[in-house]
Design brief:
The chain is mainly α and 407 residues long. The chain folds into two domains: 184 residues, Growth Hormone, Chain: A (Up-down Bundle); 203 residues, MFS general substrate transporter like domains (Growth Hormone, Chain: A). The chain has 18 helices and no strands. The protein is globular and about 55 Å long.
Length: 407
């Protein structure tokens, strides 16, 4: 790795690591923080559902503004988002009481962080095109590792210092991320202005008409993340009948998050031999196997094996879907493409929260996993139709690798 590549990669790693460290505080420990502030479980559910729904609305909207190639760049939006998160975290640290104020601020920062996530990915492809060579898989994998390590450390810190430590840690990480973003300036390049040969499709219906196979794949991805979120959100309910405890749940989450790193770090090499379409189908199959193993698990050993499938499911899906967008989309649609991928993850979580909680109350975790298994299988069929049957437009070359030649 050249010094230049090390320099760009290191800074992009810090951007990812600080983002996912804060993601751990705002998302993984949302219930812990809000319960301490006097929220009921019902109000927590409303807060998170509202934030997720708003993020699905705003992600394509903000992405469309960035795709217009004006002053609203990936870096500028990233800096503005980080500054908003920083201000919100400071307010939540200062405000001790007031459920209405906390509800509004927490829902907003939760939403802003979800909107910001695909922009980090789009920023990589923008900088790569400008000659700033970055190892994306390594950076994204270390982001997941940052989430895993921070989650463990945060749990211990809350036990010792109380729930306020969450916002203190977020303020530290956000400040570091904002400083790095400020100096993360792309070299000037002469990009062609959008003309008749390359037009941004900011209208949803125009986007669907232009990329029908991609949007069908997004539907399949929603199904994958229905099961993925069901397992993550209701892990304790799943493992309790198997004799599992909160400590073992922490171990299971840590295994899944940590094993994302080696896969993501090596994915660039794998994509030189296997097409994005085939890798995405492989990831979908891995989501199915992960859900099946969790359904069949008689004890915690098989639960841990199921969680280890994360390295073939989520860890493959996230970076490969990012490259797939870059290969499939015209330049002025790529940020929206990344946003729609992130929307599939969010929508999967929303539907999972709405359906699986009720299924748990009525039928229990076993039945919930059966439904998750059926939904994932349906998603795999949809993804196969989108990626193999309805291929749509021919893909352009990306990073010197022709998708068509490898599929």
């Amino acid at each position: 790795m050249t010094n230049g590549r090390k320099f760009w990669t290191l800074r992009y790693i810090i951007i990812n690591a600080t983002y996912f460290a804060v993601y751990s505080g705002i998302h993984a420990y949302a219930s812990v923080f809000l319960l301490e502030k006097g929220f009921s479980n019902t109000l927590i559910g409303i807060t998170l559902a509202l934030a997720n729904i708003l993020s699905v609305i705003f992600q394509p909207f903000v992405a469309g503004l960035i795709d217009k190639q004006g002053k609203l760049t990936n870096r500028n939006v990233s800096m503005a988002s980080t500054a908003l998160l920083l201000a919100g975290s400071i307010l939540l640290l200062v405000i001790k009481n007031g459920i209405v104020a906390i509800f509004i601020i927490f829902a907003l920062i939760y939403m802003v962080q979800m909107v910001y996530q695909p922009i980090i990915t789009a920023m990589y492809f923008e900088y790569e095109a400008a000659g700033c060579h970055i190892y994306y898989g390594l950076a994204r994998g270390l982001g997941s590792a940052g989430f895993a390590v921070t989650s463990v450390f945060t749990g211990m810190a809350i036990g010792r210092f109380g729930v306020s430590i969450l916002m203190i840690l977020d303020i530290i990480f956000l400040s570091a991320g904002l400083i790095v973003l400020f100096f993360f300036k792309k070299p000037s390049v002469n990009n062609p202005e959008p003309g008749t040969s390359e037009v941004a499709h900011n209208n949803l219906f125009s986007f669907i008409k232009t990329y029908p196979d991609f949007m069908l794949f997004v539907l399949g991805a929603v199904c994958f993340f229905f099961a993925h979120n069901a397992i993550n959100d209701y892990m304790i309910q799943i493992i309790t009948p198997l004799g599992g405890t909160e400590t073992q749940m922490g171990t299971a989450v840590f295994i899944a998050a940590l094993l994302e790193l080696p896969t993501m770090a090596l994915i660039d090499k794998v994509m030189k031999k296997v097409s994005c379409r085939n890798l995405l189908l492989f990831a979908g199959a891995a989501f199915l196997v992960k859900t099946l193993l969790m359904f069949l698990a008689p004890n915690m050993v098989l639960v841990y094996i199921s969680q280890a499938m994360q390295m073939f499911a989520y860890a493959v899906f996230i970076p490969v879907s990012a490259y797939f967008v870059n290969q499939t989309m015209a330049r002025f649609d790529q940020v929206k493409g990344q946003a729609y991928i992130n929307c599939s993850i969010t929508l999967g979580g929303v539907f999972s929260s709405l359906v699986c909680g009720r299924l748990l109350d009525i039928k229990g975790p076993h039945f919930m996993l059966i439904v998750s298994l059926v939904v994932t299988a349906a998603g795999l069929v949809i993804a196969f139709l989108a990626l193999k049957v309805w291929r749509g437009k021919k893909l352009k070359s990306s990073c010197g690798i022709s998708e068509e030649k490898r599929s």
